[in-house]
User: Which sequence fits this backbone?
């Protein structure tokens, strides 16, 4: 039971973040389509000077977030240190893109002007996802501090012969080989 503390907490957060990233992609793509078509006077759209940049980074964050959640689902299924690398790396990139979209959402809010309900919903989802993705990222890497929270980076999970360093796979290599 102690080995699954991080897994039991990360799994519902992964599912919630996946649903929220899907909603972000849907709203951002609809808004970007209206923006490209020149329909910024649509009653549920509006916008200001930061809107185009915000929409582009929102779509990027949404797509990378969805890919991160797929890698995270594979990691939650395997729950080993070798699957942690893919899940951790993709979640860091997804969080970085979400943080960029968060900054642009704050800029869009501070500029003001008429923003339709779809843009306000998208801003709210990006702001919430910035913090929930950071929490998910911290839960993935909680195994660094204690193995009861999940796999760490130095856990081998592979049986090794006694007295053999698991990092070095044995053998002496090729002696005195030189490529000219």
Assistant:
């Amino acid at each position: 039971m102690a080995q699954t503390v991080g897994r039991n907490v990360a799994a519902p957060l992964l599912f919630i973040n996946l649903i929220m990233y899907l909603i972000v992609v849907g709203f951002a793509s609809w808004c970007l389509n209206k923006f490209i078509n020149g329909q910024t006077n649509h009653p549920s759209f509006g916008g200001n000077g930061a809107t185009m940049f915000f929409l582009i980074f929102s779509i990027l964050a949404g797509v990378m977030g969805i890919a991160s959640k797929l890698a995270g689902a594979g990691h939650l299924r395997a729950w080993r240190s070798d699957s942690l690398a893919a899940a951790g790396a993709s979640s860091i990139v997804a969080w970085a893109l979400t943080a960029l979209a968060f900054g642009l959402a704050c800029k869009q809010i501070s500029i003001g002007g008429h923003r339709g309900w779809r843009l306000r919903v998208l801003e709210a989802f990006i702001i919430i996802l910035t913090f929930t993705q950071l929490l998910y990222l911290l839960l993935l890497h909680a195994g660094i501090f204690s193995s009861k929270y999940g796999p760490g980076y130095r856990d081998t999970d592979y049986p090794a012969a006694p007295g053999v360093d698991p990092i070095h796979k044995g053998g002496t290599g090729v002696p005195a080989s030189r490529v000219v």
User: Anything to note?
Assistant: Helices lie at 5-36, 51-78, 81-111, 117-140.
